[in-house]
Amino acid sequence: MERGGAAVQWYIILTMKPMFYAALFCSKFVSRADTCTPPSFIYNGYLKEYKSTYHSVVEVVCYEDYRLANGRSEALYECQENGEWQPIHDCKAGRCPKLPVVRNAKTTDSLAIPQAVGLYYCDEGYEMKGDVNYTTACVNGSWVPMPNPCHAVQCRSLHDLGHYSNISNDQVVYATEVTVTCPLGHWFDGNTTVTLFCNNSAQWNPAASPCERKLFLPKVISLMSWSLTGVDCGKPSGILNAATSYTRTDYESQVEYECLRGMWFSRGRYSATSTCNEFGQWAKLQAKCSELDKQPMAIPVTEADGSDVFGWVISGILLSIIAFIVISDIPMILRQVKDISTVRRPTKKKTRVAIKNDRQLNLTQLFS
């Protein structure tokens, strides 16, 4: 009985195993295809080493400046069991051209690959859309957004800043120089004419301000002071028996003379000072150092400085005004004198006639 059961088992194994292998072999032909269909057209690329059998590989290569979805220029795709290729992507524009040149601007070096960023820097005194920097990105083979040109910054119009009588140039862009003139009686920081420069911050330098009305006399004094800045009297001359001391020789500087011991300029004075005047000369000192017992009794120490000149000028102006008033009044005075003479003459004439008549009357009475 046991032998019969074993024989049945061996019979089943021997008869079913070939059928199993046959079914397994056939299933392979049923579940997969031997070849894949040809790939569709590749845009902006081509196929390299094309084979369509199962497990074969095809290579897709993109043209220059084009990329696949993964950013690469080439890729391998396999024929699958279902007779379909792995998803094959088209080549799209990837690399951007070299960053375009922008006038009055510099740029950083960029790789020009997808999603790369380019940065522009405007030159000094220029700006791009209100800023000196500008950023662009490489998207689908193009720089987005396209850079704009750099324009020179502009200062404010001088016509809006003050009532200048003359403006040499109406340009207000960076690096422009403009000379402006104030009208008569007005000044711009002490000057009637000044040159302005438009800097890289869109500001006038020096700062433009309206012309201001000022009195003429302070301006004259200011000009006089400015003209005297170059005055130099040179080395002062010495005085006998006196030591000389000074530090400067320009306008209004002073030199001090001090008599030696036992010497004097005048009674009770042993020092004197001379000042450099506006004519480039030291004020003269009418003095000398001498011993006390030999010193003259009346030797005044005098000096003529710039104040004397100013006093003479003021005196001359006052005298001119008085003379003008007197001269203008002379015709009126002469008319008044003439009128007085005209009034008095009839009175004198009438008196003489009366006296003559009186004399004749007296003679008639005498001989009658």
From TrEMBL:
Disulfide bonds join C36-C79, C155-C198, C233-C276. InterPro entries: Compl-Cell_Adhes-Reg (IPR050350), Sushi/SCR/CCP_sf (IPR035976), Sushi_SCR_CCP_dom (IPR000436). Pfam families: Sushi. Residues 34-93, 153-213, 231-291 form the Sushi domain. Keywords: Disulfide bond, Glycoprotein, Membrane, Repeat, Sushi, Transmembrane, Transmembrane helix. The keyword Transmembrane applies. The chain crosses the membrane at residues 309-334. SUPFAM superfamilies: Complement control module/SCR domain. It comes from the Eukaryota. This is Sushi domain-containing protein. The lineage of its organism: Eukaryota, Metazoa, Spiralia, Lophotrochozoa, Annelida.
